[in-house]
Design brief:
mainly alpha; single chain; about 170 residues; 5 strands
């Protein structure tokens, strides 16, 4: 499976101390060099900057061979390179959160997933507790619509009930 990640999902998963769920769910994840630079930016939390200085073996950093599409100019460099890399490698999924980037990736027929989907899949695999991780995610500044939050919590409760009943 080829999975490409943009900056935001990695940023939040590192802050949550849950980046390793990416390895459990996808094996390896590929990021473009622009994402590395964004994770190293001065405004980025120190824990994130430190994490990317010694990336885990399952995280592969790629330089993109083709220049990003000028049609992506309204997106930041990490998003542009992540989308271009996903297209070049014919990725199975692109992990991206930003609305404009997601829309453009979907327009290009890329399978898009976000941080919340990664966490939900990780909860399904027994790797995270959604009741703990979602409030922490919000505390780090991640916006979650109230209806989506309730849906995720209800889904997690149902998942927990199924596991205890079996």
């Amino acid at each position: 499976m080829i999975v490409i990640a943009d900056t935001s999902p990695l940023h939040y998963l590192i802050l949550l101390e849950r980046a390793e769920v990416l390895q459990h769910l996808y094996g390896r994840v590929i990021i473009p060099e622009a994402v590395v630079r964004e994770l190293q930016a001065q405004k980025t939390p120190a824990v994130v900057r430190q994490w990317i200085t010694s990336p885990p073996e399952w995280l592969q950093i790629r330089q993109i061979a083709v220049p990003p599409d000028p049609a992506l100019a309204e997106l930041d460099l990490g998003e542009r390179e992540a989308i271009a890399l996903a297209e070049t490698l014919r990725a199975d999924a692109l992990i991206i959160d930003e609305k404009m980037g997601r829309r453009e990736a979907e327009r290009r027929k890329l399978r898009v997933i976000g941080t919340v989907r990664v966490l939900d899949d990780a909860a399904e695999a027994g790797l995270v507790d959604m009741r703990t991780v979602l409030p922490r995610l919000q505390a780090f500044g991640f916006y979650l619509d109230a209806k989506l939050l309730q849906f995720l919590l209800d889904r997690d409760s149902a998942r927990t009930r199924r596991k205890t009943e079996s």
